[in-house]
Amino acid sequence: MAFDLDEHLNGNRVGFFTDTSICIGCKACEVACKEWNHVPEDGLDFTGMSYDNTVGLSADTWRHVAFVEQRTPMGRQEPGVGDMDFRWLMSSDVCKHCTHAACLDVCPTGSLFRTEYGTVVVQEDVCNGCGYCVPACPFGVIGKRETTGVAAKCTMCYDRLPAGEEPACAKTCPTDSIQFGDLDELRERADRRLRQVQEAGMTSARLYGRDPDDGVGGMGAFFLLLDEPEVYGLPPDPVVTTRDLPSMWRHVGMAAAGLLAGIAVTAWRRR
Amino acid sequence: MSQTDVRMDGSAETRADREATPGSAGGRRERLVTHRERADSYYGRPVLNEPTWKDHDIAAYLFLGGLAGASSTLAAAAELTGRPGLARASKVGALGALGGSLYCLIHDLGRPERFLNMLRVFKVTSPMSVGTWILTGYGPQAGAAAATDMTGLFPGLGRAATVGAGLAGTALATYTAALISDTAVPVWHEAYREMPFLFAGSAAASAGGLGMLAAPLAEAAPARRAALLGTAVECVAASRMERRLGPVGEPLRRSRLLRLGEALSLAGALAGVTVARRSRVAAMAAGAALLAGSACTRFGIFHAGMESANDPKYTVQPQRRRLAKKRAERELA
Question: What pTM, to 2 d.p., does this model score?
Answer without folding.
Answer: 0.94
